[in-house]
Design brief:
This protein is an alpha+beta fold. The chain is built from one helix and four strands. The strands form two sheets. Strands 1-2 form a two-stranded parallel ribbon. The longest helix is centred in the middle third of the chain and has 13 residues, at 25-37. It is elongated, with a radius of gyration of 15 Å. The mean pLDDT is 87.
């Protein structure tokens, strides 16, 4: 049973420093490598369902 699903969101990913809230491409790569190397996997939004009675997201 999965009790929690971590969610990571990025506003923008780029290599220039023009956008203050953007994540640097190198940092993004390091973060993705860490997640991959530590067994995390991607769950697409289409893999999720929502129970209106309990207001709970679940994995289909």
């Amino acid at each position: 049973m999965i009790n929690a699903v971590p969610i990571i969101a990025y506003h923008d990913i780029e290599s220039s420093k023009k956008i203050p809230y953007a994540t640097d491409v190198n940092l993004f790569f390091q973060e993705m490598k860490y997640l991959h190397d530590n067994g995390f996997r991607v769950i697409r939004l289409s893999d999720l369902g929502f129970d209106n009675k309990t207001n709970v997201l679940y994995i289909r």
